[in-house]
Amino acid sequence: MTTTDRPDTQVIVVGAGPVGLLLAGELRLGGADVVVLEQRATPTTESRASTLHARTMELLDSRGLLDVFGTPPNEPRGHFGGIPMDLTLPSPYPGQWKMPQTRTEALLQEWALSLGVDIRRGHELREVSDRGDFVEATAAGPEGTVVVRGGFLVGCDGEDSTVRRLTGAEFPGNDAGRELLRADVAGVTIPNRRFERLPAGLAIAATRDGVTRVMVHEFGSQAEPRTGDPEFGEIAAVWKRVTGEDISGGTPLWANSFGDANRQLTRYRSGRILFAGDAAHRQMPIGGQALNLGLQDAFNLGWKLALHLGGSAPEGLLDTYHSERHEVGRRVLSNIRAQAMLLLGGPEVEPLRSVLTELLTHDDVRAHLAGMISGLDIRYDVGGPEHPLLGARLPDAGLTTGEGPVNTAQLLRTARGVLLDLSGGGAALPDTSGWADRVTALPAAPEKDGALDGVGAVLVRPDGHVAWAGAPDTDGSGLREALERWFGPSH
């Protein structure tokens, strides 16, 4: 590579929505230089997604972000295809938490900027090229054409991803057959409706701070290709046919529609170009799962890409982003397809809804679906001998260290790996000083009868998932293998 071809930055992130901003911050925590290209000149004023699930709240807590987010309103009850269900599971943040996307985006932008992320608004991507040693992105900016070179490029630019289109990435699946029309309307007074199935269609309405969000689907209607958002008059007309209520005199603040399209990239990585969030998978945003799935993509990718760029990553670490998150995405898209059928289907789905309603009275069924929706049941294949914690998220637990009491989330604030010696000196761990630049080793006493009581030691990845757990081997080989697999060779 010539001097003039040297990258301007290590990572180019395309898209300054919540996923792109979280990824950019994670990369900076790992020491990577980041440029974010965003075609919008100003942040969005549309709060499309407003639900944060338990696992996402845990991830935000592990970076200290809830200190600035505050504690959003909590709702323990969610739904599966419009059928009410309790989402409560063991977690510091059970249920779902309501945060307007505008605020989520604003707070993540503030955090990313505080870490030194270079966010360039008003830059519309026109060309992308993987040059082998680097990626070149050409964008139309406020002052003309801009060319940015980076070691990697990550498309976080939504369901209509420009990066995906420009690279021709394979995106199999189904286009939308049905859709929900949605609008935020001021100046109307109508009853709140929670997934109300009426003879003519599905109606949803909720009023907060004088603004009513309405969503409506007319049974039997088909989604047509749109070149833009629907007019409010169309939404008001459908609402009246379904509910008999006239909302046409209200003031629409914004309107859009979303269909039941269901697509997923064949590969989340192609050379130096990767994808996260809706750019990697397109699904109906039922119950907030789309936003949460994307934020968790970013959390999985950030530390791996930063470690790779730092030169310490083991062979194949970056490819585990695809293998881990593609399977999670496939499973989420499958449950969303099932929910879309239950939500938008007409009278023909009523028998199925009745059966599922009955099944949800059994707590093991409820817990299974709640774990899927909340992201709390995710368990990655991390290798190593079987252990109840292996591959799962590090459970919330209180610990006592030399510096006093802490909880497990606080141990991950620096986005490094953590090796917890919980044996109380009863079992000697092998020397891990060769990984001290990537992993913090810490003796700690677990709270009695807590989730970590009786566990000899755990190795935790920066994303909070357990990479190794148990009593050390006689020679410590199992722990060293896990350290090498996830954090590279000893230095």
- Describe the sheet with the most strands: 8 strands, mixed
Based on CA atoms alone, the radius of gyration comes out at: 24 Å
State the helicity in percent bands.
Answer: 25-40%
Per DSSP, the total helix count is: 11
Uncertain segments: none
Counted up, domains total: 3
Mean pLDDT: 94
* Shape, principal axes of CA atoms: globular
Please name the CATH topology of the largest domain: FAD/NAD(P)-binding domain
Please identify, by name, the CATH architecture of the largest domain.
3-Layer(bba) Sandwich
Structural class: alpha+beta
Explain what this protein looks like in three dimensions:
The chain is an alpha+beta fold and 491 residues long. The chain folds into 3 domains: 3-50 and 100-173 and 263-344, FAD/NAD(P)-binding domain (3-Layer(bba) Sandwich); 177-259, Alpha-Beta Plaits, CATH 3.30.70; 398-487, Glutaredoxin (3-Layer(aba) Sandwich), CATH 3.40.30.120. Helices cover 28% and strands 28% of the residues. The protein contains 11 helices and 28 strands. Strands 1, 2, 8, 9, 10, 11, 19 and 20 form an 8-stranded mixed β-sheet that branches. Strands 14-15-16-13-17 form a 5-stranded antiparallel β-sheet, covered by helices on one side. A hairpin with a 2-residue loop joins strand 22 and strand 23. Helix 1 packs parallel to helix 4 and helix 1 runs parallel beside helix 7 (289-309). Residues 8-334 form the FAD-binding domain. Keywords: FAD, Flavoprotein, Monooxygenase, Oxidoreductase. GO terms for molecular function: monooxygenase activity. It comes from Streptomyces noboritoensis.
